[in-house]
C-alpha cells in the first residue's frame, strides 16, 4: 500500500538493538542435544510486512494487513523455533514503521540464512483468493505479479525510476542479483513454501511468481515474499483475522522452510558453491 517515503535509520538501529538484545545464540537456542547437521540454517529472519503508519492493505471489515502479518510472523517464529535449530529473528516485533530497505539490511546484518517477508494480498476483484510466493526478478512474471509488486513497493515510480536511480542502473543491479547462488536458492525456497502453503488454503493456488520487490533487492541470502491470502476478499479477511487460521498458515510456511533446509543439507537441486558458505 502507499505510504510516505521515509528512511528512519535511528528507528531501525533501535529495532536491531531490541531484537539483538534477546540474546539468542545458535549454540544455545534449541536446547536439543547434538550439533545441527552440516548445511542446516543458523539464522532465519521473518519480516512482518508493513507496520506503524504503513497499514498495508485494509479489508472491507477494517482488518489491517500490518496486524495479520505480525500475528502470522509470531506464529511462524514459534513453529520454526520448535522445528529447526536456527535462531529466529523478526524485523519488527511490534506495530512500528520500518522502511523496505531496513528490513533486508537487518537480515544481512545478522547473516541470515533465509529471509521471509510476510504480506497479505488485495485486489479490486472481490473474489480474488489464495496464496502466492514471490522471489526477485527484474521482470514481473505476469501483469498481476507486476501489480502486486507495485502495490507492495509503493516507492517505485511507474515511470521506471526508483529513488531517482536511472533505469539502466537498476537493470544492471538486478541482473547481478539474479545471477547469484542465493537467487537460485530463493526459487527453491519459494517452491517449498508455496507447495506447503497451497495445501492448507481454501483459496486458489496462485503459484510461484517473480517480481521486482524492493524488500528483496538488498537481501544477500535466499529471500521470498509470501502473500498469504486476500484481505480484499470478505471471506478471506475473516479467515486471516482468525488465530487458528494464522497458526495453520504459519505451520504450513514452517513446513516449507523445513523442506528447504533438507535441500540445503543434502544440496539436492541446489547449485554447489565455491568454497564454504559465509556464516556468522
Ligand atoms: Zn503488503
How are the strands of the biggest sheet laid out side by side?
A: 2-1-3-8-4-7
Low-confidence stretches: 1-32, 155-162, 273-280
What is the 3D shape? globular
- Tell me the name of the CATH homologous superfamily: Zn-dependent exopeptidases
Q: Assign a percent range to the helix content.
A: 40-55%
Largest sheet: 6 strands, mixed
CATH architecture identity: 3-Layer(aba) Sandwich
Number of domains: 1
Number of strands: 8
Ligands in the model, by name, code or SMILES, are: zinc ion
How much of the polypeptide forms β-strand, as a percent range? 15-25%
- The termini sit apart by 34 Å
C-alpha Rg, in Å? 18 Å
Q: State the helix count.
A: 9
CATH topology, which one? Aminopeptidase
Order of helices and strands: HEHEHEEHEEHHEHEHH
Overall mean pLDDT stands at 82
* Global structural class: alpha/beta
Describe the structure.
This protein has about 280 residues and is an alpha/beta fold. The chain has a single domain, classed as Zn-dependent exopeptidases (Aminopeptidase, 3-Layer(aba) Sandwich). Helix content is about 40%, strand content about 15%. The chain has helices at about 10-20, 65-85, 100-110, 145-155, 165-175, 180-200, 215, 235-240, 245-265, and strands at about 45-50, 85-90, 115-120, 130-135, 155, 160, 205-210, 225-230. The strands form 2 sheets. The protein has a 6-stranded mixed β-sheet, with helices on both faces. A two-stranded antiparallel ribbon has the order 5-6. Helix 2 (about 65-85) links the parallel strand 1 and strand 2. Helix 2 packs across helix 9 (about 245-265) and helix 6 (about 180-200) crosses helix 9 (about 245-265). The longest helix has 24 residues, at about 245-265. It is globular and about 45 Å long. About 45% of the residues are buried. Zinc ion binds near residues 65 and 119. Zinc ion binds near residues 49 and 65.
Amino acid at each position: 500500500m502507499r505510504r510516505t517515503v521515509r528512511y528512519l535509520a535511528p528507528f531501525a538501529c533501535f529495532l536491531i538493538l531490541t531484537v539483538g538484545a534477546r540474546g539468542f545464540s545458535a549454540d544455545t537456542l534449541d536446547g536439543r542435544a547434538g550439533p545441527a547437521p552440516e548445511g542446516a540454517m543458523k539464522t532465519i529472519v521473518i519480516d512482518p510486512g508493513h507496520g506503524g503508519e504503513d497499514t498495508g492493505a485494509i479489508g472491507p471489515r477494517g482488518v489491517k494487513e500490518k496486524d495479520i502479518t505480525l500475528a502470522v510472523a509470531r506464529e511462524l517464529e514459534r513453529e520454526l523455533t520448535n522445528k529447526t535449530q536456527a535462531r529466529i529473528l523478526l524485523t519488527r516485533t511490534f506495530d512500528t514503521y520500518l522502511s523496505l530497505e531496513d528490513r533486508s539490511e537487518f537480515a544481512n546484518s545478522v547473516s541470515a540464512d533465509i529471509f521471509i517477508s510476510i504480506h497479505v494480498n488485495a485486489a479490486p476483484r472481490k473474489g480474488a483468493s489464495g496464496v502466492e510466493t514471490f522471489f526477485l526478478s527484474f521482470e514481473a512474471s505476469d501483469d498481476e505479479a507486476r501489480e502486486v509488486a507495485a502495490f507492495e513497493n509503493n516507492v517505485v515510480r511507474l515511470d521506471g525510476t526508483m529513488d531517482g536511480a536511472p533505469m539502466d542502473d537498476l537493470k544492471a543491479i538486478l541482473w547481478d542479483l539474479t545471477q547469484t547462488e542465493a537467487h537460485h536458492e530463493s526459487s527453491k525456497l519459494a517452491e517449498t513454501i508455496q507447495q506447503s502453503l497451497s495445501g492448507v488454503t481454501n483459496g486458489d493456488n496462485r503459484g510461484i511468481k517473480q517480481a521486482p520487490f524492493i524488500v528483496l533487492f538488498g537481501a544477500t541470502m535466499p529471500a521470498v515474499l509470501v502473500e498469504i491470502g486476500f484481505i480484499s476478499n470478505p471471506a478471506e479477511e475473516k479467515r486471516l483475522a482468525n488465530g487458528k487460521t494464522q497458526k495453520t498458515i504459519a505451520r504450513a510456511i514452517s513446513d516449507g522452510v523445513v523442506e528447504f533446509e533438507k535441500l540445503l543439507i543434502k544440496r539436492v537441486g541446489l547449485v554447489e558453491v565455491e568454497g564454504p558458505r559465509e556464516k556468522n
